Amino acid sequence: MNDQISGKAIHILIVEDNPGDVRLALEALKESKIMNTMSVLEDGAEVMPYLRREGKYAKALRPDLILLDLNLPKKDGREILNEIKNDPAIMTIPVVILTTSQAEEDILRAYNLHANCYITKPVDLDQFLTVVRAIENFWLTIVKLPAKS
Amino acid sequence: MTTDSVSNPGIQVQSSGRSFPETYRLIAKILTALTVMCSVLVLVDRLVFFSYFHKILPSHWPMKTNAALGLLISGVALWLRQTQPRESRIGKLSRYFGIVIFGLGIVTLYEYIFSVELGFDRILFELMRTVDYFPVYDRMAPLAAINFLLMGVILFLYEVETPRVILVVQILTFFLFFTSLVGIFSHVYVLPNWFGPNPNFLSIALFAAILFTFLALSVLFSRPDKGFMVLFSDDGIGGSLARWLTVFSIIVPSILDLMTMWGERTGFLGDNSKSVIDISAIILVFTFVVYQASNWVSRLDGERRKAEEVLRKTVHELERSNADLEQFAYVASHDLQEPLRMIGSYVQLLQRRYKGKLDSDADDFIEYAVNGAKRMRNLINDLLAYSRVVRRRKDFEPTSFEEILKQVEADLRLAVQASGGSITHEPLPTINADPVQIAQVLQNLIGNALKFHGDRPPKVHIEAKKENAEWVFSVRDNGIGFEAQYADRIFVIFQRLQGGEKYPGTGIGLAICKKIMERHGGRIWAESTPGEGSVFHFAIPAI
User: Is B218 part of any domain?
Assistant: First the structure.
């Protein structure tokens, strides 16, 4: 908890149902220079309780960045995005949509729901690693975000 | 490009015997020959036997010598037309014969109208004047003169083969046929009761009237594949309807009327009952004909509607299955990407982390797996691009090919520089098309031209020509080319002629071009000489 306040460690929430993708993201972030901790949720329905620290997530860390997949079991990524961006307590957390979909309608819809950015997962490993690091670099070191409450 | 003719299985084609046009042409020649023979016979009879012929074929009105001569000239002219080649000099004589015939008719009519006697009718045959009935006249009947007028025009116009003139000739011929029939009927009704000193308007010789019908039928039958005769030569139901109804409507009223007249003359039928019976019988007969014809048409109509329904269903099915296929291709390639990404990424991760740490076999195997995954990724991307041709379509808009080419050239600038080649073009038009897709076609074709070059630096030249209702574009190169036998195969998805590392690719570009052209209602094809270069053509309808 202290790390978080001092800003040394960064906490990233990955919402992704495919363990392969989760692992890839973890592998990419593992090689990162930024001190970070990661939480992974595979079930869409768990995201809002987690962010609101309800039930078993009472002690959950507030993430600095959310990597959100669109196609999830139980609760769709689009719904989750909508709920996050309508909740004043968490709406300032940057949400990066990281998905396989290249469909125009998905992209448009995500931005309409105030996604902070939309990224299509690259098929090539090197590109994927580059993208994950770029996300991390951009959102966690370049961008100035409001202070955590 | 092959154009397969589609034969309609519903129409029966006469497999044995002559076709209608052949039969008609034969009939035409026989009729012409008969006319010539008969008119010669009449003339010889007049000149040599002093009308013996008239005695064995009695008629109230004998054929005049100049009418016989006119029929002979007409018959010979028609015979020349029907047997000599169109451009031959002898064949063209018929036109002058036509003028002579026309002159014969007009002078005779002039004599009638202004009541003058030019002596024209007796110049040649003064000595042969053997007519006992009206010694003053050796002049043909006005009706015969009108027939010669018509025949003259017909012969004069016969060699002009434009559709409109042919139709005019056929209509005139139909009139000739009609006036000749009037002449024949006049022998049944008018002339037997005519005892005036001057010839009646209709006093054409029966034999002459018959020969005129021969001539008229001969003209009609000699060109069975032109004008309204096309219908009579038709093998289908329309043709037989036309043939039967025409024969029927000429023969039935004639026979009916002859019968009632015979009844009247023999006293079997009382006063005026002939008309009553005639009219009733004709109504009866034609009601039957109309019923039969309508029945025929109605049956055909039913069949047509059924066929239309089947066609509509088939089109609907096809559209649906086409849409399904496109959806399938998109979904399959889209969903395939997900597991492929896993395979590719983790094999690559293996390679990164464990290269050189396992044995050399393992390194090889991983290498093969990585390459396989990459190739598959390219294929899937291409498949997606291919299915996008239909999925991501835009409405057609006026598209300047010059502008599009400029964009494409800019995009290909690096490739052009790397190959040391050049792109040139003629002025290009503006056509209604999907600009994004047209750019894709040009990019693919020019890209190929730059890619498949031999030792020489590539030279690409683009031009457009308007041919009939479409614009044909050509992209010409001086590259390695291909053998003619592969000209169709190169447009099939994932079909390649060049493999390996020198010319990488999946073989999607031309398949996409073909699909885009199909969407534009156009076509694409190629020709080439191996080692010298290729030309790719594509044609788009010019609005």
Answer: yes
